Amino acid sequence: MLGAGKVYPVSEDEFIIDPFSMPTYWPRGYALDVGWKRTAALWGAHDRDDDIIYIYSEYYQGQQPPAVHAHAIKARGEHLIGAVDPASAGVSQVDGRSLITEYRKVGLKLFPANNKVTGQEGGIHAVYSRLTEGRLKIFRTCANLIKELRIYRRNERGKIVKENDHLCDALRYLCMTNMSHGQKMKSSEDEDDENVIQLSQRGRNRLTGY
């Protein structure tokens, strides 16, 4: 089923952890992979003292306009900056508009991530290095990301299988930036984040509904 093998052959016990309340001074940011069939985002917090990135929240929805996605994304911290798939800066063949422009119009603060061929392999190396060195942790409430990681694989020619990998792409963007775009949480947003964690521990996220 996994073809030539998993991209990240690391035991889940090494990087999946229970949610916890993070310090407000840890910089936070997100990465966004956009599309009509599926739009996905991941939020990370960076413990710069120990150089550990914690993936603490995800968004995973399809077939909705940018305004709907943006509303859910801004609810996790309107001032936070996101690294977005650079393909979104291209002009759509359908309506002649770029997705990154549309998302900026509805209030998201975005910059294009590095997603060139060398950038993709560089991003995979960045993720793998962090996983093996214990410098990347994922809250177990990020169920869709964990599901994608389990089937993220290379084919017999060593090429990445581009299927069900939207959150894996977002994870690459975060690690490639090394969370350099991270922003501290504001007090009111930190209170909201605490509520999200408490509800996540009970099995339902207030913002995503799952």
Quick take:
By secondary structure, the chain is an alpha/beta fold.
Protein model, in words:
By secondary structure, the protein is of the alpha/beta class. It has a single domain (5-201), classed as Nucleotidyltransferase, domain 5 (2-Layer Sandwich), CATH 3.30.420. The protein is 33% helix and 20% strand. Strands 2-8-5-4-3-6-7 form a seven-stranded mixed beta sheet. Strand 4 (39-47) and strand 5 form a beta hairpin. Helix 3 packs across helix 5 (166-177). The longest helix has 17 residues, at 117-133. The protein starts with a strand and ends in a 9-residue tail after the last helix. 38% of the residues are buried. The model is unreliable at 194-210 (pLDDT under 50).
List the defining traits of the structure above.
alpha/beta; 7-stranded mixed beta sheet; Nucleotidyltransferase, domain 5; globular; 210 residues
Q: Provide mean pLDDT, rounded.
A: 83
Major beta sheet summary: 7 strands, mixed
Q: Please state the second-level CATH architecture.
A: 2-Layer Sandwich
- Specify Rg, calculated over alpha carbons: 16 Å
- The helical percent reads 25-40%
CATH topology: Nucleotidyltransferase, domain 5
Order of helices and strands: EEEEEHEHEHEHEHH
Which percent range describes the beta-strand content?
15-25%
What topology does this entry show?
Blueprint: E1 5-6, E2 16-17, E3 28-33, E4 39-47, E5 52-61, H1 66-74, E6 81-84, H2 99-105, E7 109-112, H3 117-133, E8 136-139, H4 143-151, E9 153-154, H5 166-177, H6 187-201
Parallel strand pairs: 2-8, 3-6, 5-8, 6-7
Antiparallel strand pairs: 1-9, 3-4, 4-5
Helix pairs in contact: 3-5
